[in-house]
Write a structure and sequence with these properties.
Strand 2 and strand 3 form a beta hairpin. The chain has a single domain, classed as Rossmann fold. The protein is globular, with a radius of gyration of 18 Å. By secondary structure, it is α/β, with parallel strands linked by helices. The protein has 6 helices and 13 strands. The protein has helices spanning 11-39, 72-85, 102-110, 123-128, 162-172, 220-224, and strands spanning 3-4, 41-43, 47-49, 94-96, 114-118, 133-134, 147-153, 173-182, 198-201, 204-206, 230-234, 247-252, 254-255. The strands form 4 sheets. The protein has a 7-stranded mixed beta sheet with strand order 6-5-4-7-8-12-11, sandwiched between helices. It has a two-stranded antiparallel ribbon with strand order 1-13. It starts with a strand and ends with a strand. It is 29% helix and 21% strand.
């Protein structure tokens, strides 16, 4: 297995790498796709996945390379979790801000002490999913130091107060705990935040151009970029950290 894993702690670090290494990244991407088509890829927990079991869309690799309920993005998360767990999967308490997704089911199969939730603010939502826990990531109901791992996939960009959500993540994690998550990321190396709607109160949303999402931090380039490699970090804010862990955005780690 070949593993290409890159980490960047600032946007400037990523920008320098992207400008200088872009031709090489494109070449590695093409080589990786060729090898995956012939040899398959490596799942962090299940090992080799043969090509006939992989769903591939070369135009959107971040959400493609689907196998065993994982995309390249969520498989990158599993790689980080396996490295951190180091054989302790049965004892670690894991929280994810998703419960109904295929990836949430995969996490449950790996971590017996898994807890998942969905954002179900309306009574009608909760009636539709009576067995699913409702949680607002800005005001989690869990006590301090409750979990070893917190997984957040494509959630923070929808939250009105992201710093509050990050502070809550730090609060419910045990000392030395890990927060790992993904958010849309502009691979072109320029920083841009687009706020498409904002909350006036807890129960009302100002809408703009018929966009109902509370908050998005994304750019078009983040969705169309063909590059599967890149990792960006965002330091936890709003609360003194009890852990050296950072909020980790795994764009993808190709393992094949």
């Amino acid at each position: 297995m070949d593993l290409l894993e890159l980490g960047f702690r600032t946007l400037d670090e990523w920008s320098v790498f992207f400008r200088t290494m872009r031709p090489g990244i494109e070449s590695q991407r093409a080589q990786a796709m060729d090898r995956i088509a012939i040899q398959g890829l490596h799942d962090p927990y299940l090992g080799l996945v043969t090509p006939d079991r992989i769903e591939l869309d070369s135009a959107r690799l971040r959400e493609s390379l689907i196998a065993h309920s994982c995309t390249s993005r969520t498989r990158a998360i599993l790689h980080v979790l396996r490295t951190y767990a180091c054989g302790r999967e049965k004892s670690l308490r894991v929280f994810a801000s998703e419960r109904l997704s295929p990836f949430a089911q995969r996490l449950r199969s790996i971590f017996p002490r898994f807890t998942g939730s969905e954002y179900l603010p309306l009574a009608s939502d909760r009636r539709a999913h009576p067995r699913v826990m409702h949680q607002d990531v800005q005001a989690l109901s869990f006590s301090d130091d409750s979990f070893d791992i917190y997984v957040s996939c494509e959630v923070l960009e929808h939250v009105p107060d992201m710093d509050r959500a990050i502070s809550e993540a730090a609060r419910i994690l045990k000392p030395g705990g890990l927060f790992v998550g993904t958010v849309p990321f502009n691979m072109r190396g320029t920083e841009r935040t687009i706020k498409r709607a904002w909350a006036r109160t807890a129960w009302s949303i100002w809408r703009r151009r018929n966009i109902t999402a509370i908050r998005h931090v994304r750019t078009r380039a983040a969705w169309s970029s063909p590059y599967p490699v890149g990792t960006s970090y965002r330091t936890l804010k709003g609360r003194a950290l009890k852990t050296p862990a950072c909020a980790l955005s795994c764009q993808a780690i190709l393992a094949f």
